[in-house]
Amino acid sequence: MLKEFLTGLRFLLADRSHAEVDEELQFHLKQLIEANIQAGMSAAEARRQAAIAFGALERVREECHEQRPGYWLETLCQDARYAIRGFRRNPTFSLTVVLTFMLGIGSTTAVFSVVDRILFRSLPYSNSDRLVSVGLIAPIEPQEFMLGDRTMSGRITKSRL
Amino acid sequence: MPQPTDLLQGTLDVLILKTLALEPMHGWGIAQRIQQVSKNVFQIGQGSLYPALHRLEYKGWIQADWGESENNRRAKYYSLTRTGKKQLQAEVESWDRLAAAVALVLEQG
Hints:
The complex is a heterodimer of chains A (161) and B (109).
Chain A: H1 2-13, H2 18-38, H3 43-54, H4 57-66, H5 71-89, H6 91-120, H7 150-160
Helix pairs in contact in A: 2-3
Chain B: H1 11-22, E1 25-26, H2 27-37, H3 46-59, E2 62-68, E3 74-80, H4 82-106
Antiparallel strand pairs in B: 1-3, 2-3
Helix pairs in contact in B: 1-4
């Protein structure tokens, strides 16, 4: 496991050159031509058939390159560079994006920091579950216990007179 | 030209490892050897061979050294590393398990 990681790291730092891959593939192609000649083809035909069988050289080269350990990092960097170029080309859009993110992240953080304290965290006292709240509960509606009786309303009418 | 069949993913790796367990070889030699031993069932195109070789090398299972080929050309010779040997053993075992399981299912009834 560690050894595989180290090997990967070694190849990540020192990549093989394209020329090396090319030489390897060229060797294969030459062997193919030779085999075709031995099978009785003319030199030109052997070359032609080998080229057909070999297919697109560039594709093989690409695929070899894609195998290297840091390949995903390479594409990631490319994507990032592409995105940054896009942002620079359209500053209004990028500013809107940045502002949206700022507001979004800011408000979420603010709300969460309050909600977290109130709902999720336990109170900063020992035995906080035994904490009780003592107080009077009074009705908000002031008229609730007003009983309109006759003497009272009689008095009001008198004083008005 | 025979119809190309999809090899089970990873099968080519174990074939390469096994071929290299016998002696160090260059890419061309590996393809030829596998083709001969499999009685032309496996025809390995360079499109899959070289990416596989490089992948195995990056994993540290095989290593590459430049050498002289039979006809005095510079060629890249691949050989199995110690981790590669262990890997080959593990892959052969898991292949045996897989093949036996598939055979069991196919032969039922």
